[in-house]
Amino acid sequence: QVQLVESGGGLVQPGGSLRLSCAASGFTLSFSRYTMSWYRQAPGKERELVARVGSFSSSAIYADSVKGRFTISRDYAKNTVYLQMNSLKPDDTAVYYCNAQWTSQFDYWGQGTQVTVSS
């Protein structure tokens, strides 16, 4: 029912920028109920939280490694969450996943989008 589709990944040079989008659809509950997050998983590493934003008035949370470079935002009218990625580094190379969660029972993932920052 719930579908999350990421887009915007690709190959970029170090120092470059990229904006990821996650388009959500099929929610039975309101999109605003869900905490929206971006995770990433690099080769040989565990999946890690990159950024997270909750309800309308919630502040964003970022991993220390991306703080000051990445910005998460959401457009409630479009049911879309974004991740603006600036000053990209080779260590940012990973598959980036969009996640929507209200409770453990309502926990959905996108298929991921590849971000590659050249060395």
Description:
This protein is mainly beta and 119 residues long. The chain has no helices and eleven strands. Strands 2, 4, 5, 6, 9, 10 and 11 form a seven-stranded mixed β-sheet that branches. The protein is globular. The model has no long low-confidence stretch (mean pLDDT 94).
SSE series: EEEEEEEEEEE
Radius of gyration over C-alpha positions, nearest whole angstrom: 14 Å
H/I helix tally: 0
Percent in helix: under 10%
Strand content: over 45%
Low-confidence segments, given as residue ranges, are none
Question: What is the molecular shape?
Answer: globular
Mean pLDDT: 94
**Annotation, overall tally of beta strands:** 11
Class from helix and strand fractions: mainly beta
Give the distance, in angstroms, between the N- and C-terminal Cα atoms: 39 Å
The largest sheet is: 7 strands, mixed
Q: What's the short version?
A:
This protein is mainly β and 119 residues long.
Q: Which terms would index this structure?
A:
119 residues, mainly beta, seven-stranded mixed beta sheet, four-stranded antiparallel beta sheet, globular
